[in-house]
Amino acid sequence: MKRIGFDGKRAVQNFTGLGNYSRYLLEAMQSCFPKNEYILYAPRERENPRLTPLLKRGNMHLRLPEKNIWKKLRPLWRVWGMTGEMENDGIVIYHGLSNELPLNIRKATKVKSVVTIHDLIFRRLPECYPLIDRWIYDYKFRKACEQADRIIAVSECTKRDIVKDYHIAPEKIEVICQGCDPAFAEMVSPEKKEEVSLRYELPEHYILSVGTIERRKNALLAVKALAHLPEEMHLVLVGKETSYAKEVRKAAERLGLGQRVHLKQGIPFADLPAIYQCAEVFIYPSIYEGFGIPILEALNSRIPVVAATGSCLEEAGGPHSIYVAPDDAEGAARAIRRAMTSEDRRHMVEEGVKWAAQFNARQMAHQTMACYERLMEI
Fold first, then answer.
1. Distance between terminal CA atoms of the chain?
2. DSSP-assigned letter for residue 271
3. What is the rounded distance in angstroms from the CA atom of residue 21 to the CA atom of residue 4?
4. Burial class (CB in 10 A: 0-12, 13-18, 19+), 300
5. Architecture in CATH of 3-179+360-376
6. Of 349, 310, 306, which is closest to residue 326 (Cα–Cα)?
7. Residue 78 carries which DSSP code?
8. Among the four given CATH numbers 1.20.1050.10, 3.40.50.2000, 3.30.70.360, 2.40.10.10, the one describing domain 182-356
9. Strand pairing report for 234-238 and 112-117
């Protein structure tokens, strides 16, 4: 039995993004290697229905700050204070799941450390981030890469960025990709599809895009592409809205597409598979990503994918999805029309399902454990 520690902050507090990654890996490790004990270090507790079942299985535990000083200074506990508790807990490997490690992990403990770096987008698109955030991210991410005994990158693209920007030796970095929730591979019943379509007032024919509606995700490309498509085709954008959503709405109105562009936010996870499976095509026009989990969700949902070039999306979508430049609206429209053509659609769907099958929880868990075991042999 091994005691393995994890940064549990995102698993506890976040319901999307890094929280999903954390819970996906934790559940995979717990299921594939049930004899180990897993300790999650988190600055505070929060009710999270997607984490609670993991904590009830007996081999996973949540550790919160114990000393009064750290209860008052919870952010600093995560940076400095929890290393002492790792030693007391007998942790052999500590894995920072969200781009950072305690700053004193090398000086205060003999525990081997691994960090997952998801992306360095703030360096590629600095205009999308406040200056102070860029400084903080850059310091934390660089420090984690330098201190970690091993780095896990979520894509080859992210690995290249780490090597280039932080001058880290490539052999220190392993690429281990995440899969998506298995719910997307389960075919939703016609009754459920109809119920979800009615509840969210979904159009009969639509292109789908899922992700925060922010500038980097580039929803404007999908809107502009829609202008070149038949009138019966609509665009459904699912995700949390930012100020960029106003630009999307204005562009839709300016192009005479106000009635054909639908923004939806606050949709519970349980309804997402049906929304995917009712779509004609999935478009992911993001300018830069670390990997692209929504693409895997679409492929598993048996929906053809059109995505943007320029980062890592080809890694997620595989050779049978279609890729266009993130500023080429007419090219995106041509790609969508091609993906809707019966023969091309059938081929894209069949090959997409095969491609997506390689990204699964079992493979991720075994690759991650192999990384840990190689460290423990050093």
1. 18
2. G
3. 17
4. buried
5. 3-Layer(aba) Sandwich (3.40)
6. 310
7. I
8. 3.40.50.2000
9. unpaired
Residue 378 C-alpha from the chain's centroid? 31
pLDDT tens across 75-121, in order?
889 888 899 889 889 999 999 999 999 999 998 889 999 999 999 99
Do 208 and 281 form a contact (C-beta atoms < 8 A)? yes
In the block, residue with structure tokens 């894995």: 95
Q: Which of 2, 316, 1, 35 is nearest to 178 (CA)?
A: 316
CA 125 to chain centre: 18
Record the tokens describing residue 237, joined without a space: 């954008």
**pTM to 2 decimals?**
0.94
Tell me the residue type at 345: R
Phi, psi of 353 (to 5 degrees): -65, -40
**Shortest CA distance to 301 belongs to which of 179, 182, 185?**
185
Q: Are strands 261-264 and 322-324 parallel, antiparallel or unpaired?
A: unpaired
CA distances from 181 to 103, 132, 192, 298, 327 (A): 32, 34, 18, 11, 30
Q: Structural domain boundaries of the chain?
A: 3-179+360-376, 182-356
Q: How confident is the model over 150-162, as pLDDT tens digits?
A: 999 999 999 999 9
Is there a common fold for 3-179+360-376 and 182-356?
yes
